[in-house]
């Protein structure tokens, strides 16, 4: 199995990008991982929230293969602790899927078409974080999950 993380828009903060790069490199020791940025839409001032979600949704769906399992990072998704999330990943790896795709949406969330295509939703917290920070948190949690599965000391129980 491989994991892909899709996100709308580039990371503006250099320090944040350095941490993302570090965890992405670490994660590569455990699994094939791809972090793909979908460029921000242009001229969004002229678009309604719904139209912006629809356009971003089209870009997200264009990045998927028919066999991908799509999981949305969504405030109304399932909550896991780190051990539970590692078990969630293990179940997907055991199922024989080719690619697990996590998606961080744009500022207004996801279009209905993306929700309809999704195989599940995960919430990282009940709190709200910037889309920039969520990238780091998600990649770090993926890394943490693999260290848990390998019984390595990164995650202290």
From TrEMBL:
EC category name: transferase
Subcellular location: Cytoplasm
Binding, S-adenosyl-L-methionine: 73, 105, 124-129
Top-level taxon: Bacteria
UniProt GO cellular component terms: cytoplasm
Signal sequence, start to end: none
The entry's keywords: Cytoplasm, Methyltransferase, rRNA processing, S-adenosyl-L-methionine, Transferase
A GO molecular function held by the record: rRNA (pseudouridine-N3-)-methyltransferase activity
EC number, UniProt record: 2.1.1.177
Chief localization: cytoplasm
CDD domains assigned: RlmH-like
Catalytic activity: pseudouridine(1915) in 23S rRNA + S-adenosyl-L-methionine = N(3)-methylpseudouridine(1915) in 23S rRNA + S-adenosyl-L-homocysteine + H(+)
NCBIfam families (UniProt xref): PRK00103.2-4
UniProt function note: Specifically methylates the pseudouridine at position 1915 (m3Psi1915) in 23S rRNA.
Subunit structure: Homodimer.
Family to which this protein belongs: Belongs to the RNA methyltransferase RlmH family.
HAMAP family per the UniProt record, alphabetical: 23SrRNA_methyltr_H
Name of the protein this chain belongs to: Ribosomal RNA large subunit methyltransferase H
Species this chain originates from: Gelidibacter algens
Gene (UniProt): rlmH
């Amino acid at each position: 199995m491989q994991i892909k993380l899709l996100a709308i828009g580039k990371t503006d903060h250099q320090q944040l990008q350095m941490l993302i790069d570090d965890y992405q490199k670490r994660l590569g020791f455990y699994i094939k991982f791809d972090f793909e940025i979908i460029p921000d839409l242009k001229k969004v001032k002229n678009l309604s929230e719904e139209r912006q979600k629809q356009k971003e949704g089209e870009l997200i769906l264009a990045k998927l293969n028919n066999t991908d399992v799509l999981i949305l990072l969504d405030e109304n998704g399932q909550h896991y602790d780190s051990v539970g999330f590692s078990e969630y990943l293990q179940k997907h790896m055991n199922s024989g899927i080719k690619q697990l795709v996590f998606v961080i949406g744009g500022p207004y969330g996801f279009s209905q078409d993306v929700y309809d295509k999704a195989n599940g939703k995960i919430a990282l917290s009940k709190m709200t974080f910037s889309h920039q920070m969520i990238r780091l948190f998600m990649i770090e949690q993926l890394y943490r999950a693999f260290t848990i599965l390998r019984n390595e000391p990164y995650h202290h129980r």
